[in-house]
């Protein structure tokens, strides 16, 4: 059970640990990038005129334009006088009216209800049910927050504190490669990370035998209670098949692991034969005993996907079959943290314009404009989804030797050279963990600069 | 020193405790108000047609209009296409351009720097220095957050954890009356609340002898480390004089207490002879040893004051002379919680249009339109500032007897009767603590309904 006085302040610790970890490999690159930027501004001549940072999943910072429909609705909500003119499409004005009607006094300036605006959460639930072909979604299980990472951290925190009397510390299975913030979210809670390796040779597939091996490896060291999956992937851009998800659910059921399904890239699927299917949907399809016992938390965000509204700070988690204690605690988590506009953005993401709406044609056109991916010269698994590529780089022994002499990981060395010679800042694979002896790089593909990212 | 693993998750505990406390006196009123609203919607006849809730500091929910300048700038930032027309005043467009220029990719959709947008924090610092007649403000001591309550909680949390090895638990002095969320923020951290009574007879003055008495009363029970003051007041609408502030600073210095100065109502001063002077300014004026030793945290927010943008979730704390450990930890607190628009709103609050700017005349007119306060029949100290009145109600013994029979505090009983008979929802004084045998009510004066709030 919960012991409030002992619950660790996840948010704080997470932040601090995160900052420390960031100081390892990436920080050397970031420092050099700052210097280069300064040198460029002082007129130092280089083979490039500006620095290009494609490390992060931050499309707007890379020049990707926001969705017009989203920004028009939000602007009309901020300044309702805009609705008196007919310059904004009818569906924009109608949506803004609807959203403002759910605010006390009709203003985004009034306090939203502590747990979020009820009508917005109800609509989000309907939209989740629609996404899943009719699988019901209870609005009481949907919890908004200032971002999916926040939701993941507090969910993990509660699961960890549920087990704080166990003799061994809590463990959570995580994929390798995995985003550094996820790893630090977990370790900062005092929980252990139990790595399972995705199979690069098989398109970064998630293999149950490997989950089994990872679980065995944890024996005696920690008490694994949850399995974190990210689909579509980050940094590796795979999309899980229904069959793969079924296998994972069966495994979680058998081993009594809570499934933490990071589905923030659900709207970013490019593979011709790939399709996003949610864990929730597959779970429902599998029927009892799975559908009413396997504990699942699914995360989503307005920062990722095609909206890319990272600055608004909005996300949610849907909880299925979770311990009522956890649900009850999370139901209070949102108090006073998620802005009204972030809640509106969730509504807009999950209820986009439909065919026939005035805003639909433009929205649909931008929505489908996925940049072509061009990566000759690197060994890279096909990118089926997500916002990143994670190609493998094969470095000559001399480069590896040189990296050692300079006290860097070989892939950090590669990134540093790329930065010096081209002004392009990418992230080394060692930030995400990788199989020993392999080297990777990660960069964002949701920008217009792919073609310059060719290895020399 | 800090023991991260032992730092209590303040946010969570705060929320839960807050919700529990709210369930005491106010909840009965809120439940009845919900019923009344339902009855009204079902056509039940009552002496009023709608429910009027003036419990909270939420001006927009009560029909107060947002500031045009603020909303125009934010709308232009959300939807920059608006700037191509000349319908928006020049200073609005210029400000929006400036703000967007501080975002990566020129979009509010990109991630802000972890600790906030540096240029905005620099401007906020300059504005604080201007407010204080030139007393310098170091931007490295200003920390943005999703609200002042958040900042207060984490500051208190850090101060408390700094003392977690002391044999007695930490104590924080708080005024009576005091807002319930402040009390619960403190108690939820495991700290003790040490109440000092404001003197109603002297216009709710803060008297040093009373601080002395309160401190004495804590002896053996807890270890007081901080003194919380709110100026201008809430729920009592006093404004502290410079002399009063000097006395408090001297007291804090002598007793080595950290000053937690809640100054969120600094822009709400109505008293003819009242003027807001910040604790920071008075501290600087007093010179050494005070100015370089007394530890001060000053809180502000876009929710309070004349902007009343509660839905945007933005605030800040400025730290003066604080333990570098605390400053260092707080510097990381904002990670990924405060939206870009909340940061913009802070800039707009602290750098309003100036005389000569196109937006100035309208801005100034609205800014100065303070509602007249009309309160015959109740004993109420003059309201000099803040957003609330806290009049004393004198109840006949029969009413007190009746309240007892119904299991309510006498002032809750009064509020319940007012709700039934007029449809107006206000808060009983017992929610804020009060001297035994006295009864009060609190309601918001930043709305257009004052005249209906006359006692029967």
Automatic annotation (TrEMBL), chains A, B:
<comment type="subunit">
    <text>Homodimer.</text>
</comment>
<dbReference type="InterPro" id="IPR004839">
    <property type="entry name" value="Aminotransferase_I/II_large"/>
</dbReference>
<comment type="pathway">
    <text>Amino-acid degradation; L-alanine degradation via transaminase pathway; pyruvate from L-alanine: step 1/1.</text>
</comment>
<dbReference type="GO" id="GO:0004021">
    <property type="term" value="F:L-alanine:2-oxoglutarate aminotransferase activity"/>
</dbReference>
<keyword id="KW-0032">Aminotransferase</keyword>
<keyword id="KW-0663">Pyridoxal phosphate</keyword>
<dbReference type="InterPro" id="IPR015424">
    <property type="entry name" value="PyrdxlP-dep_Trfase"/>
</dbReference>
<dbReference type="InterPro" id="IPR045088">
    <property type="entry name" value="ALAT1/2-like"/>
</dbReference>
<keyword id="KW-0732">Signal</keyword>
<dbReference type="GO" id="GO:0030170">
    <property type="term" value="F:pyridoxal phosphate binding"/>
</dbReference>
<dbReference type="Pfam" id="PF00155">
    <property type="entry name" value="Aminotran_1_2"/>
</dbReference>
<comment type="similarity">
    <text>Belongs to the class-I pyridoxal-phosphate-dependent aminotransferase family. Alanine aminotransferase subfamily.</text>
</comment>
<protein>
    <recommendedName>
        <fullName>alanine transaminase</fullName>
        <ecNumber>2.6.1.2</ecNumber>
    </recommendedName>
</protein>
<feature type="signal peptide">
    <location>
        <begin position="1"/>
        <end position="17"/>
    </location>
</feature>
<feature type="domain" description="Aminotransferase class I/classII large">
    <location>
        <begin position="85"/>
        <end position="434"/>
    </location>
</feature>
<dbReference type="InterPro" id="IPR015421">
    <property type="entry name" value="PyrdxlP-dep_Trfase_major"/>
</dbReference>
<dbReference type="InterPro" id="IPR015422">
    <property type="entry name" value="PyrdxlP-dep_Trfase_small"/>
</dbReference>
<dbReference type="GO" id="GO:0042853">
    <property type="term" value="P:L-alanine catabolic process"/>
</dbReference>
<keyword id="KW-0808">Transferase</keyword>
């Amino acid at each position: 059970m919960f012991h409030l006085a002992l619950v660790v302040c996840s948010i704080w610790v997470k932040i601090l640990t995160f900052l420390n970890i960031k100081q390892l490999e990436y920080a050397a690159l970031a420092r050099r990038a700052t210097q280069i930027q300064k040198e460029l501004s002082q007129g130092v001549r280089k083979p490039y005129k500006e620095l290009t940072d494609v490390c992060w999943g931050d499309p707007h910072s890379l020049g990707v334009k926001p969705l017009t429909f989203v920004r028009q609705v939000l602007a009309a909500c901020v300044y309702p006088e805009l609705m008196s003119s007919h310059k904004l499409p009818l569906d924009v004005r109608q949506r803004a009216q609807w959203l403002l009607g759910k605010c006390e006094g009709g203003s985004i300036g009034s306090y939203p209800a502590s747990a979020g605006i009820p009508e917005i959460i109800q609509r989000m639930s309907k939209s989740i049910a629609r996404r899943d072909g009719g699988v019901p979604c209870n609005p009481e299980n949907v919890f908004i927050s200032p971002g999916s990472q926040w939701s993941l951290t507090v969910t993990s925190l509660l699961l960890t504190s549920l087990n704080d009397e166990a003799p061994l510390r809590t463990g959570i299975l995580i994929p390798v490669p995995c985003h550094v913030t996820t790893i630090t979210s977990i370790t900062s809670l005092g929980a252990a990370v139990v790595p399972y390796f995705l199979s690069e040779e098989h398109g970064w597939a998630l293999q149950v035998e490997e989950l089994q091996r990872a679980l065995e490896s944890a024996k005696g060291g920690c008490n694994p209670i949850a399995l974190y999956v990210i689909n579509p992937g980050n940094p590796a851009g795979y999309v899980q098949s229904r069959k793969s998800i079924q296998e994972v659910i069966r495994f979680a059921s058998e081993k009594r692991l809570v499934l933490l399904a990071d589905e923030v890239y659900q709207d970013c699927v490019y593979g011709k034969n790939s399709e996003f299917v949610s864990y929730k949907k597959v779970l429902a399809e599998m029927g009892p005993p799975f559908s009413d016992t396997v504990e699942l938390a699914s995360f989503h965000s307005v920062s990722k996907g095609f909206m890319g509204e990272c600055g608004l700070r909005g996300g949610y988690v849907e909880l299925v079959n979770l311990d009522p204690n956890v649900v009850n605690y999370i139901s209070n988590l949102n108090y006073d943290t998620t802005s009204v506009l972030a809640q509106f953005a969730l509504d807009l993401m999950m209820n986009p314009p439909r065919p026939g709406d005035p805003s639909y044609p433009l929205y649909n056109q931008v929505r489908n404009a996925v940049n072509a991916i061009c990566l000759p010269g690197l060994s890279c698994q096909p990118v089926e989804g997500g916002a990143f590529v994670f190609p493998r780089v094969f470095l000559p022994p001399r480069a590896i030797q040189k990296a050692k002499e300079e006290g860097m990981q070989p892939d950090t060395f590669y990134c540093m050279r790329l930065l010096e010679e081209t002004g392009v800042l990418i992230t080394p694979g060692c930030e995400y963990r990788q199989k020993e002896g392999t080297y990777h790089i990660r960069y964002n593909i949701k920008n217009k600069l792919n073609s310059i990212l060719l290895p020399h």
